[in-house]
Amino acid sequence: ILGGRVSRRGAWPWQCSLQSGQSGHVCGCVLIARRWALTVAHCFEGRESADLWRVVLGLNNLDHPGVHSQSRGVRSIIVHPRYNRAVVDYDISVVQLDSEVEETALVRPVCLPQPGQLPSPDSYCYITGWGHMGNRSESTRLPTPASGGSDRHFNICSERNMMLDRRYLLVLYSSFKHVFPVAVKYGDSGGPLVCEEVGGHWTLFGLTSWGSVCFSKVLGPGVYSNVTHFTPWIQQQIYIHTYLTD
Amino acid sequence: CISASCPSACVGGSTACDPRNSNSSCTRCEPISLELCMNLPYNLTRYPNYLGHQSQRESSVSWESSLFPALVQTGCYQYLMFYACTLLVPKCDPVSLQRVPPCRSLCRTAKEKCESVLGIVGLQWPDDSDCSQFPEEGGNATCLLPEPGVDECSPSHFKCGSGRCVLASRRCDGHLDCDDNSDEDDCGCSERALWECPGSKVCIKASMICDGFPDCPLLVDEANCSVCRDNELSCNNHQCVHRTLWCDGKRHCSDSSDEWNCVSLADRSDSVLTVFRTAAEYQVCADEWNHELSHLTCSQLGLGVPSSVSMVPDQPGVPGRRRWLHVHPEWNLRNGSALQARLEKRGHACHSRRRVSVQCSREECGLRPAVGIYPHRKKR
């Protein structure tokens, strides 16, 4: 996360670390039930086998897991059948753990949104992860066509088409009412974008998917898989892999 | 070879290997498969390339394979794409089996003209492309320069009438990208080799028709895809399955869709449990119902845990004959099975004529006990 701050212990009990072999932390993930997590499909490129992975929860510091952390192997990885690697389309995966986690103060599932549900107006949303923090330059302004670049130059960076599709949330950080200048970076993929709903229930609305390499050293926009769009598919996969395993 | 010795197929003069190979060198030319560079004046390449990639697969997912096609759109240098491909898929000389590099002047010109454009958007020229590593043209070493007529655009681009290249994804997207707006001409589905959804202007790929995913308005791309007999039902992927096998707890459709939506709770306040079996609706007899099955019902529907369970008398005067399912005597031996697999049809109606009704409540989620909850505090 670029521009964020260190979290309090237990502040995001659904945030998990998707780890593989010698690489350690590869991606973020999100606990949605005692035996199920969500992440993005592109995390598994080149390492599609479930036995290469483990999910670690209850962490604050990656290097110091602590006695309250829980680690589980992965029983199955369900990548969305329409995932397109070339254009990072349908970038979402359901991960089945090899056994249930124990719900504690530091390990809790997040709420899945109802199909089509939107965050409540004026709700606070957060992105979290253990990705790169970068070196944000306080004095860097985002270049605009008026300041010297021509419109053609920004054609390199335009994610126009993606903005029109309901499978995505394009987050222009500068468009938020209260600008807390943060952005997701490499290593945050698969992590959550959560918003606080009525009654203090945090709900998962996005999964960190990708961002343009343009403005990557400053607050470039981020694209998130829109969980609301995929809720029916997620629930269907949990049903199939729980009750139809013959 | 990357490892110290070659794969066994290269040892001992196997016909699969070129005689110029030795036990420690399995160098060979391979056909170019990187789509981005399939319109070059050469068709053989050799890895590793000049960017450190070990294979065409690695090149296909590299940052450079995204950067250069995007940069070409700015028109900073006419032969930028050609230069990029000499780095990504270097020409392989079929005689010497060696790579043929780009000439130093080609490298320098591309960098001089285009590096500043990248700087405007906060990007850097690729690190591995130091021009001094490449030979000057006219020297002892062979190097590549673009010939007249070399294509300025890659197969991943659309060539505007003006000659400018724009990414193919911008063709017919409703935005005018070409100088002459030609990227928005002839944008009918058939011109773009796509299929037009009946009744709308939406274009989809032919492979999306009858693939089980609705893409057209009114789901017309998934209509009339199955040819099933009268006693069969159509799976979501348009296979046909005999109706007696539908919702029996076992998968018969390859996409398991014969076991989808088999169980439901009525939307009415009574939440009566209904099971869809053999293409008909059944009520569940409450006579042998138990708490574990209530838990299974709510869990299977993704609705949490049972908050109340009741036995609802059958409504008198219901038109037609009520269909009943009963709890299977061995229901508890079917661990991991869906609810519909633990019920059976019997030759008689429900003795008590009472139906199962279950109300579920979602389990708590999205709470942060470590942070604390202060519901009485209101933000001001």
Write the layout of secondary structure elements.
The complex is a heterodimer of chains A (about 250) and B (about 375).
Chain A: E1 15-20, E2 24-33, E3 36-39, E4 53-57, E5 70-79, E6 93-97, E7 125-127, H1 160-163, E8 168-171, E9 192-196, E10 202-211, E11 222-226, H2 227-243
Chain B: E1 30-31, E2 44-45, H1 56-60, H2 64-72, H3 80-88, E3 91-92, E4 99-100, H4 104-120, E5 157-159, E6 165-167, E7 195-196, E8 203-204, E9 232-234, E10 240-242, E11 263-265, E12 273-277, E13 280-284, H5 291-300, E14 305-313, E15 324-327, E16 343-344, E17 354-361
Helix pairs in contact in B: 2-3
Written description of the protein model:
The complex is a heterodimer of chains A (246) and B (380). The longest helix of chain A has 17 residues, at 227-243. By secondary structure, chain A is mostly beta strands. Chain A is built from 2 helices and 11 strands. Helices cover 9% and strands 27% of the residues of chain A. The N and C termini of chain A lie far apart (42 Å). In chain A, strand 9 (192-196) and strand 10 (202-211) form a beta hairpin. In chain A, the strands form 2 sheets. Chain A has a 6-stranded antiparallel barrel with strand order 1-2-3-6-5-4. With 380 residues, chain B is of the alpha+beta class. Helix content of chain B is 13%, strand content 16%. Chain B has 5 helices and 17 strands. Chain B has helices at 56-60, 64-72, 80-88, 104-120, 291-300, and strands at residues 30-31, 44-45, 91-92, 99-100, 157-159, 165-167, 195-196, 203-204, 232-234, 240-242, 263-265, 273-277, 280-284, 305-313, 324-327, 343-344, 354-361. In chain B, the strands form 7 sheets. A 5-stranded mixed β-sheet of chain B has the order 11-12-13-15-16, with no helix packed on it. In chain B, strand 12 and strand 13 form a beta hairpin. The N and C termini of chain B lie far apart (68 Å). At the A-B interface, helix 2 of A face helix 2 of B.
